Amino acid sequence: MLSGLLLLPTVASASVLWKGDFETGNMSQWNKVEMVNSNRLLVEADRVREGSYAMRVQVDQGDKPIQASGNRNELVYVDASLMNGGGEGAERYYSWSTLFDESYPSASTWQVFTQWHHTGLTGSPPMEFYVFGEELRMRVGGERAQDVWKAPLQRGVWNDFVVHVKWSADPGVGFVEMFHNGQQVVPLTPMATLYPGQGVYVKQGLYRNETIAPQGVVFHDGFTVATDLADVLSPAQPAATAAY
Fold first, then answer.
1. What does pLDDT average to in each consecutive run of 10 residues of the chain (244 residues)?
2. How many C-alpha atoms does 182 have within 13 Å on its Cβ side?
3. Cα→Cα distances 29→78, 199, 224, Å
4. Measured between alpha carbons, how far is 237 from 83 in angstroms, rounded to an integer?
5. Are the beta carbons of 89 and 175 closer than 8 angstroms?
6. Bridge partners, 184 (sequence order)
7. CB-hemisphere CA count at 13 Å for 78?
8. CA dist list (Å): 147 to 29, 127, 131, 193, 227
């Protein structure tokens, strides 16, 4: 499906709405930084998936940069067109890469590394990617959330994600589709992807249950938002991407 896209030239496109790929050498592409100390979110060149920079995220037990549950250090990106209910019916493609450090802890509880948070104050995010024990999981649906994908957690290697979503509170309108490391792992699946009347915004970093004691370190790179699939395919992704 959609084969041959890797043959398209890598050029700037009007379909790219935003990049949070750290190629500025800092976190200025993002709207907000939530961290307890300057060493928790670091833009560095030591471990990158593409380009020259990626972000190293560290969470220690007790890290609470905001008055909310769990421990976290995260960046925030707000797509104004998806706020205040304006996202109803909007279609987006998202891509990014994540690497879990070799020391990443295993815990039988949640550790969220990328989430689309709703604008309301209660309930689970409409879409989130998290670690539970030795599994990566994708959860979608808000108040009727369900895990739509699971895969073994592998440390020390990059995971490439492409997510295709239509934002809607109507399960007959909204849908999700997801690719992991160049392979479709969630077929286009109709479901509600918004809470009624609410919007969503992106948070990326690490947010986890406060009962987890060991330090957690994860790396993120290349976050891109677009309205066309071809513009979220990273040149760093493996040849299997052609299966899209």
1. 34 80 98 97 97 98 95 97 89 98 98 95 91 98 88 98 96 97 97 93 98 98 95 62 40
2. 15
3. 11, 21, 11
4. 30
5. no
6. 179
7. 10
8. 30, 10, 12, 13, 25
Q: Which residues pair with 201 in a beta bridge?
A: 117
Residue that has been written with the tokens 């989130």 in this structure:
128
Q: What DSSP string describes 56-123? A: EEEE-TT--SSSSSSEEEEEEE--GGGSTTTTTT-EEEEEEEEEE-TTPPP-SSEEEEEEEEESSSSS
One-letter amino acid for residue 233 of the chain: L
Q: 191 vs 43, 122, 148, 176, CA distance in Å?
A: 36, 20, 11, 7
Residue 95 contacts residue 180 (beta carbons within 8 Å): no
pLDDT at 213: 98
Model-wide pTM > 0.85: yes
